[in-house]
Amino acid sequence: MQAKYKENSKLKAKITFLLALLWCMTLQAQKHDEYAPQMPKHEVRAVWLTTIGALDWPTAKSAAAQQREMTKILDQLKLVNINTVLIQTRVRASTIYPSALEPFDLCLTGTHGRSPGYDPLQFIIDECHKRGMECHAWMVTLPIGKTHEQRFKEFKRRHPQMAINIGEDGYMNPEVAATGDYLADICAEVTRRYDIDGVHLDYIRYPETWSKYKGAKKDKKTSASERRGNITAIVRKIHRAVKSLKPWVKLSCSPIGKSGDLARYRSGGWNAYSAVHQDAQGWLREGLMDQLYPMQYFRGNNYYPFALDWQERSYGRTIVSGLGIYFLSPREAGWMLDDITREMSFARHNGIGHCYFRSRFLTDNTRGIYDFARSFDEAPALIPPMTWAWSQAPTAPTQLQLQRGAMTDRLAWSGATDASRAPYLLYNIYAATTPDVDTGEPRNLITTRLRGEQMQVPHTNGQTLYYAVTAIDRYGNESMPIYSDSSRQPVRSVKAQTPQDTRIPPHFYDWSKKQRKKWLKRYKKASF
Predict the structure, then answer these.
(1) CA dihedral 84, 85, 88, 90 (to 10 degrees)
(2) I want to staple 484 with a disulfide (CB 3.0 to 4.6 A). Which of 296, 333, 375, 402 is the partner?
(3) Strand 426-432 vs strand 291-292: parallel, antiparallel, or unpaired?
(4) Which tens digit of pLDDT belongs to each residue from 63-108?
């Protein structure tokens, strides 16, 4: 048994290396429009929008100027078909919304605790939803600021049992049960009060400097396993708090980009599982996470095999690769554009989404990344549905009225029903120049996640357009379509090849050697 396990581990390492090598060679040998994987209908395309120190937003201090700035950013993100915005909501024991638990962050006004005169989080949620984008509350968990900062001092005064310092950095103590309760409370506050689409946990791990904490030195009985258990206990509390209120709200986190050492590739001592005690793959297995955004700010063999490792152990949940596009800046590392574009193509080829860190480097078009994104993501994409939480799709609208006009067409529909118990349905609108509107083709999507039952579509070059409308619930399950041409029957395209066709299949490493060789031969032929 042990010998067979070692043989499988070695074979797995060789196959992982071969797949990564084949893909990298393909990218080097061909141009983007020739090698790009087929445009998927479902894919997470996200961005981390950072508020700490106003790194991405806001640069202005007045409410009106901040709102103008945010709408401009979101318009830019919409143009490259971003469908998920992770807005930094809890910053460092401070927030960008009026919280009953913590003060306003100083990024909004320049003064800790001062109200900006409006609710920034509500504004951002509303503007994201207007553009058909999901808005996730990005919650920084354990860090609570520098020890000389007012936010740390206030938190320590109010919660002395939870606040610790390691040198100049302040943290919530992961080994105190009250820490998990508090974080669950603040995540519940956001979930209860706002129509968010997700809660995104950042820094849900032990500080890498934990060995320098005086309390840790005194307590030498805390093992690595116990530390992982402490972090997992916090995650469980947050999961329970969020899902008990709104089970359709996605729970995600951003673990260290390498889960652990692989059979062939080592993590260099910096990984989630052993270095900072994040059992993120265990959270997927246990059903505590709906999405994972590993921070894969690496290149080459530090990226490709570890990206595959996350996907292989996704347990059916959604993996979104965090891309370090800030390294494109000459002030950072001066990466070349194709360092990132290869990773994006590799991720898509293996059914992995992509998330940019961070927003400003994307919208500033650093080394041309924004221009590339407009081409790479030229068609919209829907977010993969959470079928593990709810899988019954809504019924289709039963009535669709079309009024054609000289400049615009007006659509109105009704009759869709939802069994998911979420508060409302959303709608996707498809259009084509022929009556057989293919709702499996993402290029036909003209509007996603529309709330409401009517819309106007401007004419394009005098063309006659035909339409299809589907309902989508808050879990992402989509109904069958209703067509503007009532003679049409529902059509879902069957693609000759989808991005999943050449991914590593489930249970691949349980196949016989002959079956694995046959699949690899087909993979190589498809890649070249």
Answers:
(1) -50
(2) 402
(3) unpaired
(4) 999 999 999 999 999 999 999 999 999 999 999 999 999 999 999 9
